[in-house]
Amino acid sequence: NKTGKHIANKFANNYYDQLSVGIDFTARDIQENLKKCQHPWEKSKAFDGSAPIGEFVNKIEFDNIQDINFKLSINDEIRQSGNTKNMLFPINKIISYISTYITLKKGDIIFTGTPCGVGKVNTGDILKGYIEDRKLLELKVK
Question: What is the rounded distance in angstroms from the CA atom of residue 117 to the CA atom of residue 18?
Fold first, then answer.
């Protein structure tokens, strides 16, 4: 929600006010070809529609940012489920770390990681993303 560079961990919570869920798609066929050629993978991650993001929720709606349940269902079957307390690094530390290399600006979005359950999606699949029991994202794979 504001610009920052070299943000101290203890002040990182002042640089965001909303959370959501998103899906970080990977084109595995392209990724495999790039890996074989020892090329960077960005082409397999940065394509149209590769990172849909749900509705945002104000962080004050949560008692503890580091204890939030989130999940992804595919065709109403839970495929991924996690909690922010199980992240390798706390959200504020991620913001602090990134800001040592990149100036963070209002509107920037940070994907913080993926719980287990990564898998293939198919045309026609309905994906839904939740924080706690609140659905923030729904899409149909085309």
Answer: 25
